[in-house]
Amino acid sequence: MPAPGPDANRARYVDLLRGVAILLVVLGHWLITALVRHPDGTITAPELLATVRWTQWLTLGFQIMPMFFLAGGYAAGASWSRHLADGAARGGGSAVGWVRARAVRLLLPAAAYTGFALAGLGVARAAGADPGLLGMVGWALAMQFWFLPVYLVISAATPWLYAAYRRWGLGSVAALGGAAVIVDVIDLAGGGSWHRWVGTLNYLLVWAVAYQLGFAWQGGQFTGRPCLGWALAGGGAAGFALLVAYGPFPVSLILVTGEEVSNTDPPSVAMLAWVLAQCGLCLVAARPVERLLRSERLWRTVRPLGRASMTLYLWHMVPVLVVAAAFYLTDLAPEPAVGSGAWWAWRPVWLAVLAAGLLGLLAALRPLGRALTGLAAAARPQAPVRRPYALLAGVACTVVPLATWATRGFAPDGTPSPAAVMAFAAGVGLILLPPPQHRPARAAEEAQAGG
């Protein structure tokens, strides 16, 4: 088999970045999950980053969402530019059709997962499960949802973000970064709830910086210019170190309860610096890793990770709940003090059990994955496509409940919110609404009959 060309190597590297990012998210969540069974039989989950504070340094290795947004921007830039070229050949392309196809690919797996999670919580509630326990379970099942509304909105804004990149190049990245700094200064100033609302803009601005860098990467702005990657990596790392050492920002790149300033809720200027540093390292590593991925044997090992990344991300906390029920409720699991030497010694066993459970779950979900892939393929961009308002309303209706579930869980008081469920279902329905098809033959027949 001939070796893949440069474009194929780059696509492989992008897939690798996405897969590695999701894998590290999964491992990070599993590693910091701590469970304690009390004498009365209840189980609590103490926050490791708050209980054992040195573990906050571990987040420097596990906060790799900049890598995912960088890869996402590269893939979106390539897809959108192809769509524009195809549209020009056909006499016009539809941004609505492209955005709808991207939204469907993101929301179909999320909707399937949400349906299973809500059904499970509903059955447990009907069976008389403790509302407090269900609240904790619902939070664990939805904790990863913060990513979905952010990525959905940024994906929907791709046509405008890409146009800004084509016009201003890396200046568009600088503009987004500058806006994020201003927003963070306003948020830190405090003085009213409106500051907090302004601060939430950084969920989009900071992560859009990495996404926009993906456009620049795809557009060739870093090709043959490793100094730019090193400048991003070095400047971002130095900025992060200075902001943590002399500013109000903590070292943790994950939210820690009790801290007055967070780097992630919303993303801070320190997180912005980390975004630049991590994206720079990814760009510096691109050429040597692309050469390694020319090996078909290595690629056959890496490829399944990229294909299963969304399933891994959505379902990875389910094995935690199953193992907790099987080993902690039955008092079979050893329970050394959280953060002790014995507790850390058991971590590899904990990770291995969870990995085995997740592999079994992935095998069971394979038919569902194939069905969802088929549905997503049916929603590929079509032109011309109308109903932009239906798509906009669908995105809005899904973003709000997804953000709510990410912060409060599926069932904060033991019972899922009917309003959130209905809003999400309505939003997914509006996005899945098939576009109207032109029927010129029928139109001609009607014109002839009327004439």
Automatic annotation (TrEMBL):
Domain spans labelled Acyltransferase: 13-363
Domain of life, source organism: Bacteria
UniProt cross-references to Pfam families, sorted A to Z: Acyl_transf_3
GO molecular function: acyltransferase activity
EC number: 2.3.1.-
Annotated keywords: Acyltransferase, Membrane, Transferase, Transmembrane, Transmembrane helix
Protein name listed in UniProt: Acyltransferase
Source species: Kitasatospora cinereorecta
Membrane spanning residue stretches: 16-36, 56-76, 106-127, 133-156, 168-188, 194-215, 227-249, 269-289, 310-329, 349-368, 389-411, 417-433
Group of enzyme by EC: transferase
